[in-house]
Write a structure and sequence with these properties.
The structure is a homodimer. By secondary structure, chain A is an alpha+beta fold. Helix content of chain A is 54%, strand content 15%. The first copy, chain A, has one domain (12-108): Arc Repressor Mutant, subunit A (Orthogonal Bundle). In chain A, helix 1 (12-20) crosses helix 2 and helix 1 crosses helix 4. Chain A is globular. The structure holds a DNA duplex.
DNA sequence: TCGCCTCCTATTGACATTCGATAGGAACCT
DNA sequence: AGGTTCCTATCGAATGTCAATAGGAGGCGA
């Protein structure tokens, strides 16, 4: 049994990361904090999930990264959406809505 | 990358099974068909996912099973919700709605 | 009665994903 | 110098789903 508080539904992490980066570039932990804020504290991906996901998305060509100084003058790798990433965000958002609608429909019937 | 058409979000299968059985007992494939119907064809769990899940839920005490004859006179194991299972259905439904709301909120902002 | 098809339960191996724990570098402060 | 915080990163374990496959049992037609 998994902890419902911190556990994400599998498959939602990529979408949340893309969305978090849609308003501007962020570094790793910044992405996590942004997701926590966006979801009202419901989700807060751990480093062990977050970094593999970031690398996966970059590998797929949806993100690109560059080293820069964070707001506290620490070295940080900033990620931002590529054009393909923005397109992917649209597709995954649509897919999520389709799924959510199917689930909602199933549960209320 | 997973196929969005057939793949379930991890964690939703248990909930869909409990819901499928909430209106009466069904055998294994019947559960699958009912889920497909409930979700408008969006989800249709495969045997390799379905049976482990059924056993898991029975192990947890949320289902109980009995051998009987199906509508076609074939031996079939019928599953039905226990009282604890019905309670679990309520809890998981609530958890799902909380998650769905958090996601929707994150995506529309 | 024989063979075939369908229905149903079930298992196996592969694969992807997430988590918890942990490591380690770098900058700041006292 | 030592400690703290921030940030990136990796590893092992656990979980869940899928595709493929096996096999028993009943119905049906030749």
């Amino acid at each position: 049994m998994k902890d419902t508080r911190t556990a994400l539904l599998q498959g939602t992490l990529d979408l949340l990361i893309l969305k978090a980066l849609s308003t501007g570039e962020l570094h790793g932990l910044g992405v996590s904090r942004r997701i926590e804020q966006m979801t009202g504290g419901t989700f807060a991906p751990q480093p062990g999930s977050l970094f593999p996901a970031l690398h996966r998305l970059e590998e797929a060509g949806w993100l690109e990264s560059s080293w820069d100084a964070s707001e506290n003058n620490r070295r940080a790798k900033f990620y931002k959406l590529t054009r393909a990433g923005r397109r992917q965000l649209g597709e995954e958002t649509e897919a999520w809505q389709r799924i959510a609608m199917a689930m909602t429909r199933a549960l209320e019937a």
